[in-house]
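tl;dr need the bound structure. longer version: we got a ligand (NAP) that a collaborator sent over and nobodys looked at where it sits. i said id run it. heres the input, straight from their email, havent touched it
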Amino acid sequence: MSKSPVTVLGLGAMGTALATAFVTGGLPTTVWNRTPGKAEPLVALGATAADGLPSAVTASELVVVCLLDHDSVHETLDPVADGLSGRTLVNLTNGTPAQAREMAGWAAGRGIAYVDGGIMAIPPGIGTEQAFLLYSGSRSAFDAFAPALELLGAPRFVGEDPGLAALLDIALLSGMYGMFAGAFHALALANTEQFPAAEFGPLLAGWITAMASGIPHYAHQIETGDYATGVVSNIGMQAAAFANLLETAEAQGLSPELLAPLGSLMSRRVADGHGREDVSGVVELLKRA
Ligand SMILES: NC(=O)c1ccc[n+]([C@@H]2O[C@H](COP(=O)([O-])OP(=O)(O)OC[C@H]3O[C@@H](n4cnc5c(N)ncnc54)[C@H](OP(=O)(O)O)[C@@H]3O)[C@@H](O)[C@H]2O)c1
């Protein structure tokens, strides 16, 4: 693998994990952080602490930025745009598709090759088999630096529209938070009767994992708009049972607010005459005109 240098801007929990993966992977790594002092552990591993932001961005052809949010990226990069010109910027800061596209336009106007990314891992997972990262934007820039990016986790280039990685990142996080919403409610419900967490936690994790196997089937239904083929558990039956979820929460002294919106959509879908179809048809009610 080529040992071309890399610069990492931002040494929070994630930036530090990214820089660690580059250094331990053998890449000459320059690091910078707004607040001084965070580079020391990385310097001990072999990284170079830049003596300022301008020298950080000119130290490497590949500049990886991982800051808090979109505003902090502009605040940091706007003053050093000239130094970035002719280099590749990989932005691993969480953001919206619109922010990614805006950043790509900003980079294009300054002669900077741009790749946007979404990190699907937590910091301890970086560089392990569990980690994968989504990328979109300049394909040629991605290809040129793919060997370096592989050190962070499995790279997945999803398209040249720079907003696509952010869209899929946000979609995956949306699925995760929806899962957490249900899980937190379930854990709280079991806890109302002091059922042992050590027993219920694994039971719930196994159940959610088993139910997740239906997601590809739902994905196909949502892609085709056909919610009536291959239905095993129709939404009419599920909506009837869902009422028991809400009633039980109230009876156990729990607010059902994490679950109630899905119940409302299911009831509306049944009322609209789709009771024999699959539950995934609720997405039709989410679409704005
Ligand atoms: N941690 C995770 O589990 C995880 C997972 C996936 C994606 N991400 C994404 O990775 C990015 C970084 O997360 P993190 O966990 O490293 O967060 P963090 O530990 O809170 O670190 C935030 C970083 O942003 C810098 N920063 C904030 N505002 C700034 C500004 N105005 N100008 C310059 N630098 C600024 C901070 O610098 P100072 O040290 O000077 O404050 C620090 O380096 C976020 O977009 C996050 O959504 C995180």
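gonna send this back to them w/ a short note. The chain has a mean pLDDT of 97.
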